[in-house]
Amino acid sequence: QVQLVESGGGLVQPGGSLRLSCAASGSIVSIYKMGWYRQAPGKQRELVASMTSSRSTNYADSVKGRFIISRDYAKNTVHLQMNSLKPEDTAVYYCNADRIATQFSMEYEHWGQGTQVTVSS
């Protein structure tokens, strides 16, 4: 069973930085795409950043130039370095993995449990 476990959320002042990490486990051979989504209260979940196995990236316009996504393909982890944080970045951040090849099957769209990021003075 594929599982995603996130870490690194918390409270930070405006202008500060946080680094989120997500580790995937469960007899994984490879993962096509890993990324981060976020959901603020009263809003829909939205893509923050994603990276494919060919290192192609996709960022939300609102985070371009401030957030950096990276992957460790050997460890099946994905990280999100968040800099120059703004109050509007406050949300629950979810790790996502798609097209996961395991020793037994191909699996799709797995989500982590979410980690809270709060940007406030």
Write a structural description.
By secondary structure, this protein is mainly beta. Helix content is 0%, strand content 59%. It contains no helices and 12 strands. The strands form 2 sheets. Strands 2, 4, 5, 6, 9, 10, 11 and 12 form an 8-stranded mixed β-sheet that branches. A 4-stranded antiparallel β-sheet has the order 1-3-8-7, with no helix packed on it. A hairpin with a 3-residue loop joins strand 9 (91-102) and strand 10.
Write the layout of secondary structure elements.
Layout: E1 3-7, E2 10-12, E3 18-25, E4 28-39, E5 46-52, E6 57-59, E7 67-72, E8 77-82, E9 91-102, E10 106-107, E11 110-111, E12 115-119
Parallel strand pairs: 2-12
Antiparallel strand pairs: 1-3, 3-8, 4-5, 4-9, 5-6, 7-8, 9-10, 9-11, 9-12
Query: Which quaternary structure do these chains form?
Result: single chain
Low-confidence stretches: none
Report the sheet with the most strands, covering strand number, pairing sense and barrel closure. Answer: 8 strands, mixed
Distance, first to last CA: 40 Å
Q: Outline, from the CA principal axes?
A: elongated
User: Which structural class do the helices and strands define?
Assistant: mainly beta
Mean pLDDT: 97
